[in-house]
Design goal:
The protein is an all-alpha fold. It has one domain. It contains three helices and no strands. The longest helix has 24 residues. About 10% of the residues are buried. Its main location: mitochondrion.
Length: about 80
């Protein structure tokens, strides 16, 4: 296993938290789109899995949080 410095450890925790949060919100989506939505979330995470640029990771976390917030609000408006 690779040793992480403290900053990398914190970033990794934030990424995992974002992923869990996104999947939890996706669970509220209508059944007919839920699987595709979860697959899209996973693909987005996998796409940047090997990124080691801490500044880019922070940007991606910020962007991801905005997208999750938008999904949450959209599901709320639809009554899910």
């Amino acid at each position: 296993m690779v040793q992480l410095d403290f900053q990398s450890f914190i970033l990794r925790a934030r990424v995992l938290n974002l992923y869990r949060q996104a999947l939890k919100i996706a669970q509220r989506a209508p059944v007919h789109v839920r699987g595709e939505l979860k697959q899209t979330i996973r693909q987005e995470m996998e796409k940047n899995r090997d990124c080691n640029d801490k500044q880019k990771i922070r940007y991606l976390i910020s962007e991801g949080l905005e997208r999750v917030k938008g999904l949450d609000e959209m599901l709320d408006m639809q009554g899910h």
